[in-house]
Amino acid sequence: MSKIIPIQVSGLSKSSAQTIIANVPSSLIEPSGSLLDTLQRPLHDLRISVTDRCNFRCPYCMPKEIFGKDHHYLGQKELLTFEEISRLTQVFIAHGVKKIRLTGGEPLLRKGIEDLVSMLSNLRSIDQQPLDLTLTTNGSLLGKKAQALKDAGLKRITISLDGMSEKIFRAMNDVDFPLSEVLASIDSALAVGFESVKINMVVKKGVNDQEILPMIRHFKGSGVIPRFIEYMDVGNSNGWRLQEVLSSREVIDLIQTEFPITPIDANYPGEVAQRWKFSDQSGEFGVISSVTNTFCHDCTRARLSMEGKVYLCLFANQGFDLRSLLRSGADNLTLSNVLRSIWSQRTDRYSELRSQIKEDGTQFQKVEMSYIGG
What we know:
Elements: E1 3-8, E2 19-24, E3 45-49, H1 82-93, E4 99-103, H2 113-121, E5 132-137, H3 142-152, E6 156-160, H4 166-173, H5 179-192, E7 196-203, H6 212-219, E8 225-230, H7 248-256, E9 261-264, E10 274-278, E11 284-288, E12 301-304, E13 309-311, E14 320-321, H8 323-327, H9 332-344, H10 350-359, H11 369-372
Parallel strand pairs: 3-4, 3-12, 4-5, 5-6, 6-7, 7-8, 8-11
Antiparallel strand pairs: 1-2, 9-10, 10-11, 12-13, 13-14
């Protein structure tokens, strides 16, 4: 007799997200180590949000007008425990996940985050290789945590940094946090010896686009890799307008006015950043073009929220609740079959359909980036 498990799917329908009934047979299927969605995209990357809290109020993510002092955050009991995160991660690994990114909110606000890093760093992929384990942070607490994170097994780290001007940086974080402390945290990350240190800069035309060349000049030759991200319509609260998007092509053209550069190959299939190297061999930078040059066709990422919901797209409007199954006593094989059903029915490709959605007036409520991570 089959178990019938109702789950919600993130979709692009004009109506509310449709319900999919996942028929999980009583003779459960063992994971094969490879899982494809309806567009033949494998499950390879898992982004885990560990908290919905952040100490910055960046206007493109958590504008102060929406996320004020009275904003409600999830309580401790609503969050997945580290043990639950580790267990769900093992379920994802069984279906082929090899890369894990910890995000938030601001993940370093989660007490004992290095303990979770330690737990995940001890897991192995289906071919018994260490996971590619990384974390994205705003850098405000990294100086105090860098060594502990490295010792716990964190391989790589990405720091969000939206300007090299003190005035612009403070305006972008909107809590008057000093640039010097983030730069010191970046130095700490380099000092402890992470395999890779990257910088993410969200570029908003007319706001911080004048910071592109100063960013390149500062980090060129340092071993740090800057990445310039097109301003995206993530969530519903940032007042996104297409006119405020500076395209990656414009970023590249600007950098070429001062530095000779050449394109280089992606590190792996499905990598979101287009890579460029300086002709004098002094490093590289990347651009992420979710608006003007979409990469939905080879997106291999699933996202797990801090309360145990799986989202199949950064722009999703519904998540699949695994926490309830987990806490009701479901074993790993049952969770595996539910995940297989979710991913195998995945159709998400919001960025490819963005213009169509805007033109036909579809009202599409998306999950906020501070909840799901970037």
